[in-house]
């Protein structure tokens, strides 16, 4: 088995729209080791979910992979036809979406959905054996009375229970890579904590490699070993979670951390990052964050900064940081 179940190399993705070509992901590279959790963090529109869909080979029809590779257990899924892709999608790599209600067909019970996955992805045709596998999966995600959940329709479950069932759907095939696309956004704070704890527990128990997508660095602190901070389709900072949170280098990362509410700090207003994401149909000669940056240099508007390692495992794309480093 590969030591790095997920490797993304120089990935560039464009969307072809009526209003122009949107350059959603720009030369992104990262890797996730076995049993590790990597967090993609950034504002909405920074390219996180596009990368998540590319890992599944599930990009929409107007998306085009311009360059790069996505390796799942050493296989570049971007080169596979639909038939071969189906042997990997849902088997070696699975996804949890942010809205659990949208993950299920309301006409089928939870048991029917999971049983179909077990049949077609694991090749288990025997109904009793399939049900045994499904009940085990429902039990593993902490659902009480798995037999009742098996026979329940999605509308009969609460939001938290439905998200646990969605996690069971993703993990029943025992994939090596799990993409979690903001899986707690639709839940209240208490349920968010429970789901994050569950994902941590399952990751350690099953040896999962997890790509966790979120806009909240507070969530990243709970579930992720490393963090890749994304802005406008590019990674601007990359490193161990503690380094990113305790010693952020890039101005954008610093502002993201300032936006996280903390009970230990009294503040009159919640902080935010002024301005908005740039037009991703354009190319920018310098740092794409420069128009919103408080620490901008003249060089930032002319020369695109490279992602450079400033200390072991910690890389930053910022002229001011690199100048200070010498």
Describe the structure.
With 326 residues, this protein is α/β, with parallel strands linked by helices. The chain folds into 2 domains: 188 residues, P-loop containing nucleotide triphosphate hydrolases (Rossmann fold, 3-Layer(aba) Sandwich); 67 residues, no CATH class. Helices cover 32% and strands 24% of the residues. The protein contains 11 helices and 12 strands. The chain has an 8-stranded mixed sheet, sandwiched between helices. A hairpin with a 2-residue loop joins strand 1 and strand 2. The longest helix is centred in the middle third of the chain and has 18 residues. The radius of gyration is 21 Å and the shape is globular. The model has no long low-confidence stretch (mean pLDDT 91).
In short:
The chain has 326 residues and is α/β, with parallel strands linked by helices. It has helices spanning 48-56, 82-86, 110-122, 127-140, 146-150, 159-171, 189-206, 217-223, 241-246, 251-258, 319-325, and strands at 6-17, 20-32, 37-41, 63-72, 75-76, 93-96, 177-181, 209-214, 226-231, 234-240, 308-311, 314-316.
